[in-house]
Amino acid sequence: MKILVTGATGNVGRVVVDELLARGATEVRALTTDPAKAQLPPEVEVAHGFLGRLETLPAALAGVDRMYLAPHPPTVFEVCRLAAEAGVRQIVDMAGAKGGTWQVIEDGVEASGVPFTHLEPGEFMANATIWSAQIAAGDVVRDAYGDVVNAPVAQEDIAAVAAEVLLSDQHAGRSYELTGPEALSRRQMVAAIGRALGRELTYVELTGDAAREHFTELMGEYGEWYLDGLAQLADHPQAAVSTVADLLGRPAMTYEQWASRHADLFR
Questions:
Q1: Residue 245: what are its φ and ψ, rounded to 5°?
Q2: Which one of 14, 202, 230, 238 has the lowest number of neighbouring Cβ atoms within 10 Å?
Q3: Do 136 and 94 share a domain, yes or no?
């Protein structure tokens, strides 16, 4: 069974490759534009290409039975059509909450007619890197919506679930919401990072124009979009679900564990 992992240089796709190998997969092909950066194991077949460059995909898809689909909205319908034409028999996609920004991923996959499983992670724990520069520079973190609560998930757990589902015949037609094991406020997340560093961090709440200016500086055109998402979370807090643990038979990574493992991101 040949499995194609797209986005194999990314933070999730690259780990999907490792998780598949750890589970005994022997025919893994990785789609990447930069094999040197991906540092793929020697037993992995490399396909040079990108989901946004459709002309690179027929060769990458040849002989593939199952595919992990990284999210790339602009070409998702065309990519999935090519996958169907190539004879792919299962697509495991990474999207997001239904009806949200990433709904187009699920729509494109389902339009292809290929059996699918949707992975719907919430916010990544790694999004905390928006605080990296501030924490590296001092003990004050300026942020907004400090009391908003959600249940961020580790990208390592998303990758592990993707590999588990790709190697199973039991998940066709299913959608899996993926969260971490606990719901936390942004203040609590900053405090957890501080504990991982052995420091006490001070959270400073920004509102109004100060918040918009701060996030625009951090994220450019996506700053307003991110703030809007936080405002929605204020009205609809995200609860933790047990899906990761249910599928993997082990607990999902906690925020404390993630912060400890990735403390160097903030030094």
A1: -65, -40
A2: 202
A3: no
Place of tokens 């204020």: 234
Identify the domain boundary among 101, 121, 141: 121
The CATH number of the domain holding residue 198 is 3.40.50.720
211, 227 Cβ separation under 8 angstroms = yes
Q: Which residues are paired to 200 by β-bridges?
A: none
Q: What is the pLDDT along the chain (267 residues), one digit of tens a residue?
A: 999 999 999 999 999 999 999 999 999 999 999 988 989 999 999 999 999 999 999 999 999 999 999 999 999 999 999 999 999 999 999 999 998 889 999 999 999 999 999 999 999 999 999 999 999 999 999 999 999 999 999 999 999 999 999 999 999 999 999 999 999 999 999 999 999 999 999 999 999 999 999 999 999 999 999 999 999 999 999 999 999 999 999 999 999 999 999 999 999
Q: Are strands 3-5 and 28-32 parallel, antiparallel or unpaired?
A: parallel
Rounded (10°) CA dihedral 247, 164, 184, 225? -130
Q: For the chain, what is the domain count?
A: 2
Length of the chain, in residues: 267
Q: Judge if 16 and 96 occupy the same domain.
A: yes
Range of the domain at 230: 125-152+181-239+250-266
145 & 192 share domain: yes
CB-count burial class (<10 Å; 0-12, 13-18, 19+) for 73: middle
Q: Which two tokens stand for residue 128?
A: 């905390």
User: Which tokens hold the place of 80?
Assistant: 């999935």
Give pTM, 2 decimals. Answer: 0.95
Is position 166 within any domain?
A: no
What residues does 206 pair with on adjacent strands? 144
Closest CA relative to residue 145, chosen from 221, 200, 208, 202: 208
Cβ-count burial 230-252 (b if 16+ within 10 Å, e if not): beebeeeebebbebbeebeeeeb
